Amino acid sequence: MKRYVRYYKVVEVVIMIGKLSVFEREKQRVIIIKEKLTSIYFESKQRYGGPIKKAELNFTGTKVFRITMVRYINKLGLRIRLTIKFRIATNSTHHYLVVPNVLDRAFLVADPAKAWVSDSTYIHTKEGFLYLTTVLDLYDRKIIGWSLSDGMNTEETAIAALKMAVTDRTPEKGLIFHSDRGIQYACKRRDD
């Protein structure tokens, strides 16, 4: 071998020996791994993390070390989208007056405008969270008031929905207004 070094470059010797095919096979393997990673990434709606991707690659017959896979993921820019965890919207640890539960799960009502229930929920959008507050008449199960806002302000949520319900149906004396006893429903502003 030493006597041929003078006549040939190292790359030419490697080509003659056939070792370049090893490098070509590795290049093809890297391309296949990157294609599979990208495919797994978009099929999982950008949710799968490293361990699941590695398991899927191994399942399809492509063996890869975790650190190698992480390097390819970083090179390709495949960042997972984080899912938003459940957020509790009700704050029941306030110091406002909380009235007793008069309704006591008796959701069957004989007359309209005798019992209304209300609740707030949040809706996740691309711009952030929106808060939906509804007021429902238990007699006919229709939403008689609602409010959609970008904050949990009492004026924009509970009071706005309650005002809409009052204009839609005139409440009679003895109306039961049932809620989750959150701060929007127990604050002084709502009592007005």
From TrEMBL:
Coiled coil location: none
GO MF: nucleic acid binding
Span of domain Integrase catalytic: 108-192
Protein's GO biological process: DNA integration
Pfam name, any one: rve
Residue ranges crossing the lipid bilayer per the database entry: none
UniProt-listed Gene3D superfamilies: Ribonuclease H-like superfamily/Ribonuclease H (3.30.420.10)
Stated name of the protein: Integrase core domain-containing protein
The species this protein was found in: Flavobacterium gillisiae
